[in-house]
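Collaborator request log, item 7. Partner lab (contact: R.S.) asked for a structural prediction of Phosphomannomutase / phosphoglucomutase to inform their binding assays.
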Amino acid sequence: MSIFKPCDIRGVYNRELTDQDAYDLGRSVGKLIRGQTVLVSGDVRLSTIALQTALCGGLVNAGCRVTDAGILTTPAFYFAVRRTGSAAGIMVTASHNPPEYNGFKLLLENRPINQEELDYLQQTMVQKNFIKGSGNYRRDDTWLHQYRDEIVRRFQPGNLKIVLDCGNGTCSLVAPEIFHSLGYRVKELYCIPDGSFPNRSPNPAVAENLITLSRCVAEEGAAVGIAYDGDGDRVAFVDETGQTIENDRLLALFARHLLVREKGVIVYDTKCSLVVAEEVARLGGTHRMARSGHGFVGHEFLESRALLAGELSGHFFWRDLGFDDGIFSSLVLMDLLRENRTSLSRMNKALPRYLITPDLRLPFIGSPQELITDIARKLSRFPLSRLDGVRVELEDCWGMVRPSITEPILTLRFEGKTRESLSFITDLILSVLPEEIQFRAREIMASSLTVSP
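Returned to partner:
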């Protein structure tokens, strides 16, 4: 399987992704930007130092002027690229993937790399059609401290008790310090950096990875629990009762926080609840849907000059920053709790809650595009979106089918304001799918439906 994915590059280290790949990527990026300035950093994964060293070597040999910023969270990396005005930035990270993975996130001209540019890099690496230059290398380890000072400067002090679960990831190096310096009473959980991730997977969007955090919040009597992924651009929250708050509901709360101050665009991905669009419209904002996926949501965020964008996986993009940041998002939530003088569970309960399924991930062998085209044809009498697979959205329900870009999987998701509307949209969409997919989807739904309290 290719290490080139939509929006980034990643794979299992020393099986799919090697130091030679990193070196060749450096030479390819150097050719693309013609030897301009590049800022490089990496997360705490065990393979990062070797990949980062090889990457810098390739960039220098292609004539680039390289600044190695050492170990940073991905948001601190974004911050450093912006502040330095570098022509390109490369972050060595596999984000939320398991420990054996690593990869690269790339910025060009202070924006995420697009698919055409990724294709160019892949072609250059395959053909080994490099250029030779004589660049230079310098190390600058000040950026994590500069980022920390900038974040602290933006927020008022607080005194709530919180549980901070850094998952042994890169946020361990900076998140506890930020919260302590702002006056929060912090219970640290897995806040020692360890690239083997010995205590939990780096992905906080998986419920089982938050079990210890939930228990700790209840035991400590904390106001909130916060969990980060491996590189700090994703976040998950647990309320004071130990219950995980879905990220689309957090997005609605964040939108409320911003829209009472200023009207603007709020971007959300195709898997978010109807609650998001309804809350944005109620507050006079403009809601805009983006295809699911970090790169797609980020692109729409930049294109629409949105106040805020959010993805169900836990990415929240802020106009004040220009990028997504788990720590920044956490501190906005602290502001929300302080200003509303209430608990996270009460704020959550104040939002409508509808009947929604989790992602139903089902194996599929065949041509996904042919299937999606067939589904769209069969459902053409209903309002359809082809933004991300096929999505049917009616006044009181919606359902979607989207193929995975990286594996032979179909993802289905349904929401209804009532049991009747959920049954209608589910039956409608399942009726146009192969029988084996219908059966498996109903089997999963029977055991995992989120029901309104």
